[in-house]
Structures are given as structure tokens and as C-alpha cells.
């Protein structure tokens, strides 16, 4: 698995997951339960992971929809 996206914006990951699902790219969200530890302040980033083979296609999908991402851009 490769990191595609890292963000503290709780609305960005569901949007990215929906776009990737629409293109048949599986993704997995990490660090979801960290909000329990931080008290839902939104200071700890969540990560969206994809298969290594899907990384470039996933990056293209995010770029095509204007979603900025940090990991390995």
C-alpha cells in the first residue's frame, strides 16, 4: 500500500474515496480512530492509501478533479 493523501480536512478523504471508487480504484483510510485520542480537534492528519499498482492512476484521478495532495506529488 502507498500513501496517496494525508490531510486534516475530514471532508477531503470521503470525496477522494468516492472519486477513486468511481474509477474502480480501491482505497483504505488510516488513522481514523486517532480523532478519539485527539478529542476531535482535527489536528492529526488522516491518510488515504492505495495499492502500489494503482498509485499513478489514483494521482491522476485526484489531479483531474482538482484535489491537492501532498504525499509523493
Automatic annotation (TrEMBL):
Pfam families: DUF2007. It comes from the Bacteria. InterPro entries: DUF2007, N-reg_PII-like_a/b. Gene3D superfamilies: UreE, C-terminal domain. Residues 1-65 form the DUF2007 domain. This is Putative signal transducing protein.
